[in-house]
Give the backbone structure.
Amino acid sequence: MKCPYCNEDDTKVIDSRPADDNCSIRRRRQCEKCGKRFTTYEKLETMPLMVIKKDNSRETFDRSKIESGVIRSCHKRPVSTQQIDTMIDNIENQIFNMEEREVSTAVIGELVMGRLKELDEVAYVRFASVYREFKDVNTFMEELGKLLKK
């Protein structure tokens, strides 16, 4: 591991401990040349998950796409960034726990909508209106009617 301060290749590990609920390892390192300390994280490398889009094209899973959609849906809502991060972590874990190499955007979208419905109903309707491509006000009202019945 190169030192971020002087680019020396020779660094030693001072301390190692589990991080992120035992999903990664946090290591404190010290440069042998300049003596400065820094932290690195090791995470298990997995096979890339492929997402099957509506047009049947494929691309690698990108957490930031879920994140941007959820953040837009929660704009000006009483939802903290911590709640959003936790929700996206849970969705991501659920997707990877399926142990599939490919997953459709439909599956991901339904997972996101299910979690958003629990978190904030307005954010849920906002997300659903874009995800389900509501064509008119009647479709929007049907979705609201479903929410009100519950």
